[in-house]
Amino acid sequence: MAAAGVAVRHLTVLYDADCPLCVHIRHWLLGRRWLVPLRLIPAASFEARRRFPQLDHESTLREITVVGDSGQVWRGTDAFIVCLWALAEHRPRANWLATAAGRPFARAAMYTASAWRQAVRTEGGPGNEAELEGPACDDHCPVPR
């Protein structure tokens, strides 16, 4: 998963802190054994903007974005795959999902997650956007046991 032969020493995952699914996945990632260290930062936060001024931070709220330590950027399905690639238990699955045979399954997982996110953001139907008072979690939330 390294870009052009560049080794990846750590990855930064930008996740939507206002999305319950994204926060759940953040906790899940924190509870796994990593082959590549992960830094999980709320998307479009002050910290994300400070670390990655070149990114379109509004787009990082719409789709998962992962940034490698050498400036590599993965979005959407590729970001999902690279997150799995960083995990000891899921690297073989990530390698398969990155193939032509596995990619449709990765895209389907991302489509399902996106549809679920949209449904919780629009509780009550179109035009009734859920009011969000603040992030569901910041970078200091404990990992569920």
Tell me the number of strands: 4
**Estimated share of beta-strand residues:** 5-15%
Protein structure class: alpha+beta
What is the 3D shape? globular
Please provide the ordered H/E string of secondary-structure elements: EHEHHEEHHH
Over the alpha carbons, how many angstroms does the gyration radius reach? 15 Å
Largest sheet: 4 strands, mixed
Count of alpha/pi helices: 6
Amino- and carboxy-terminal Cα gap: 30 Å
What report would you give on this structure?
This protein is of the alpha+beta class and 145 residues long. Helix content is 41%, strand content 12%. It has helices at residues 20-30, 46-51, 57-62, 76-85, 91-97, 103-121, and strands at residues 11-15, 38-42, 65-68, 73-75. It has a four-stranded mixed sheet with strand order 2-1-3-4, with helices on one face. α1 (20-30) links the parallel β1 and β2. α4 crosses α6 (103-121). The longest helix is centred in the C-terminal third of the chain and has 19 residues, at 103-121. The two termini are 30 Å apart. Residues 124-145 have low confidence and may be disordered.
